[in-house]
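User: I want to check something. If I give you two sequences, will you return the structure for each one separately, not as a complex?

Assistant: Yes, each is folded on its own. Here is the first sequence with its structure:
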Amino acid sequence: MTDSPRAAGTQTLARGLRVLQLVSMAADGLSIQEVAARLDVHRSIASRLLSTLAEFHLVTRGGDGRYRTGAGLAALATGIQATLRSAAEPVMHDLAAELGATISLLVIEGSQAVALSVVEPPGAAYVLSFKTGSRHPLARGSAGVALLAAQSASPGEAANVTEARERGFASTFGEVEPGAYGVAAPISVEGLPPACLNLITYRPETAEGAGPALMAAAARVRAHLLG
């Protein structure tokens, strides 16, 4: 029994989105063979997917034969980011008020975690915060761990990433801001870049109880994104 045209089309779309995600996360781009290996498909399938993405200027092939993100991705990224912010910010305002701490929405950009939105708790005399657009390496901080945990498991991944995926949130201390606690819950929706909600605070009692609340908030955002 063969797959229906609709099922085949859905699979092709999912593969194309995955290719776009893989290329966007590779600092030096990817070759056709590398894409084929990561998708576990024949080289010819990877080539067709990359060619289609190139037609829409979402990726571009360099002189070295490696594919990197193209100019068309900027407009697409802007729309995706607006969608994520629209779904997340009402939830973030509720969570910041509930926990009395700064909540941020972060996504993966290459090898870094980038803040798309930052919400401070209302009426607080003093808060720990940072600016929208702030970034740090994925290897550091609760947000970086949660963003890696939002992806499928990979061979040799760090133990804290595996742990965060299993329990639903990541927690760190002093890895991005000295003396600060970070707690983050991943948001994974097919077709969208890995994202997370992150809390940052100097208060250990706030961080210790924040995991379940962040997980519930991430689930609300995911439900909004799925419609």
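And separately, the second sequence with its own structure:
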Amino acid sequence: MPDAAPKKPSRIQKRNRHLILDAALDVFSAHGYRGATLDQIAEAAGLSKPNILYYFGGKEDIHVTLLNQLMETWLDPLIEMNGEGDPMTELLGYVQRKLDMSRELPRESRLFAGEILQGAPRMNPHLVADLKPLFDEKCAVIQGWMDAGKLASIDPRHLLFSIWSTTQHYADFEAQIVVLLSGEAPYDTASDMLDRMFRNLLRPEPA
């Protein structure tokens, strides 16, 4: 007799998993992995701790689930960089997509930063298997643009690091930015400044 098909989760089960993951994202992004507890996640989700453990094996299981979901989203802006497009347009578009991600997904950005600051104990396999090949591929594309004289000649690796640091800063250091800008919304002015900064950096010198 063939094995029965796995039972699909009910609407309530899907809702509860979503509640748990959303609450855990709040807790992990605020307290980091080490500072977060299942009790905090349960309280934020409005569920009991035994209910949390019905859906997940523990704090690490929840954290890994969030990281796995995040990695799929995290790579998308770099994947979208088109090697057949105009180099300046493609790179400045990438800067804007990364800035938009900080605006729209600040908790996810802080979750990622917290994991990296701990040495990436749970995300390292993704960095090796997913990010590194994509990073190498796009660096080769950028280097090709530079070799063709379409962009100023700089190290593509450090260019990408600079894009990451300047865009993700607005999510990871949001509390400081709010104080320093006296509550002013930063993203419109940040977009203009980053566009000008990277455009000037990347503009090739006249022949």
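Because they were folded independently, the notes below concern the second chain alone. The chain is about 75% helix and 0% strand. The domain at 11-62 is CATH 1.10.10.60 (Arc Repressor Mutant, subunit A).
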